[in-house]
């Protein structure tokens, strides 16, 4: 594949979906290859402190709203609490899991090279990688627009903050200007992690498909080569396929270790975020700029969740295709025990389906995506009925 380290070979960043994501990570102070300096540590804890203050005052605002029987204030403050817990959780993962991410990106040098395949296959997967890069870049642009809509709310509504929190007398401008330093952290953490998972997942899907194609092109007659040197070369190549499959499975396990906290964070909070934002969009008591920003955020939240669930499902399916390709190769007709053993290892490894989870509490797949959406709609319907009654 045309990926070497964190940069694409020959400088073609269109084949490296992580190219612009890493630039956002650098701006947010969570780039995996940037040395942790006292300034970065200060920047990290400054962001965490500001986010924590927002969470605390948003929670206080929700409590006061409940005491005043003001459901709209409660919903808006809960929305702020959910969003900023979402940011805080992902920011912690990105900062403290930088070594894992750096290793994941560096390990891409062990990927199968597209240049070794025929032009048709090479062009097919190059187009897929370029489309992935375009999708990731478009996603990051849209997320910047959504974040910008939050920051514009004080200027469009004359007095509101980007998100609703309890504001003590005389504290408005502290909150107003306190939100601005968070912008790089918000984009890098809450959306950069989503785009990163997509940018890493698609090349892995490509790797599994390339591996399956190599096995499909394997012929049973190759095991009957009389020339000892050619026979030895064939067995060496077969062993490399087994080793590459093991490498891809371990790579996916490392992806899961990096994303454990992110998966759990996404599952738990996306339900609440989608629910409260649908409520804001559908009720008459909220200002138009507030509805627009909530609609945009709700839409992106659904896309975020889909990115995790769809890519996780596609990786699982692609890994199983390797086993199917190995079985279809008629390996059992070979009279060479080493070849039969190697192919059996490939098939056996694929029996253990690759799954992604948040610390084992939630599985990331298409079924989970539908559950999240159904649960969010159920809570929204309940909340809507409570208000009507």
Q: Can you describe this structure?
A:
The longest helix is centred in the middle third of the chain and has 55 residues, at 228-282. The strands form 2 sheets. This protein has a two-stranded antiparallel ribbon with strand order 1-2. The chain has a two-stranded antiparallel ribbon with strand order 3-4. The protein has 11 helices and 4 strands; from the N terminus they run ββααααααααααββα. The termini are far apart. The chain has 389 residues and is an all-alpha fold. It has helices at residues 19-27, 38-67, 71-96, 98-106, 119-157, 172-178, 183-216, 228-282, 288-327, 337-351, 366-388; strands at residues 3-4, 7-8, 356-357, 363-364. 74% of the residues lie in helices and 2% in strands. A hairpin with a 5-residue loop joins strand 3 and strand 4.
Key words describing this protein structure:
disordered N terminus; 11 helices; mainly alpha; two-stranded antiparallel ribbon; 74% helix
């Amino acid at each position: 594949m045309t990926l070497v380290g964190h940069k694409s070979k020959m400088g073609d960043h269109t084949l490296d979906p992580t190219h612009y994501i890493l630039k956002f990570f650098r701006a947010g102070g969570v780039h995996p290859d940037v040395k942790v300096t006292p300034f970065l540590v200060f920047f990290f804890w400054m962001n965490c402190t500001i986010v924590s203050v927002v969470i605390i005052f948003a929670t206080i605002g929700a409590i006061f709203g409940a005491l005043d029987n003001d459901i709209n204030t409660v919903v808006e403050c809960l929305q702020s609490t959910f969003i900023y817990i979402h940011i805080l959780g992902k920011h912690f993962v990105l900062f403290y899991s930088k070594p894992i991410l750096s290793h994941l990106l560096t390990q891409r040098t062990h990927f199968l090279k597209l240049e070794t395949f025929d032009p048709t296959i090479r062009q097919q997967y190059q187009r897929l990688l370029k489309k992935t890069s375009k999708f990731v870049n478009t996603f990051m642009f849209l997320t910047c627009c959504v974040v910008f809509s939050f920051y514009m709310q004080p200027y469009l509504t004359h007095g509101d903050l980007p998100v609703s929190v309890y504001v003590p007398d005389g504290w408005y401008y502290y909150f107003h200007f306190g939100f601005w330093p968070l912008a790089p952290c918000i984009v890098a953490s809450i959306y950069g992690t989503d785009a990163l998972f997509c940018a890493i997942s698609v090349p892995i899907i490509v790797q599994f498909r390339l591996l399956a194609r190599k096995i499909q092109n394997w012929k049973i007659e190759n095991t009957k080569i009389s020339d000892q040197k050619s026979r030895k070369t064939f067995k060496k190549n077969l062993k490399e396929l087994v080793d590459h499959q093991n490498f891809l499975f371990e790579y996916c396990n490392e992806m899961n270790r990096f994303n454990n906290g992110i998966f759990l964070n996404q599952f738990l909070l996306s339900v609440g975020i989608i629910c409260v934002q649908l409520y804001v969009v559908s009720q008459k008591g909220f200002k138009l700029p507030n509805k627009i920003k909530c609609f945009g955020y709700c839409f992106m939240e659904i896309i975020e969740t889909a990115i995790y669930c769809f890519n996780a499902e596609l990786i699982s399916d692609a890994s199983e295709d390797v086993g199917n390709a190995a079985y279809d190769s008629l390996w059992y007709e070979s009279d060479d025990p080493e070849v039969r053993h190697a192919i059996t290892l490939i098939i056996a490894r694929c029996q253990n389906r690759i799954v992604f989870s948040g610390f084992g509490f939630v599985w990331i797949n298409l079924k989970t995506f539908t559950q999240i959406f159904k649960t969010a709609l159920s809570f929204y319907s309940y909340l809507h009925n409570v208000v009507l009654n």
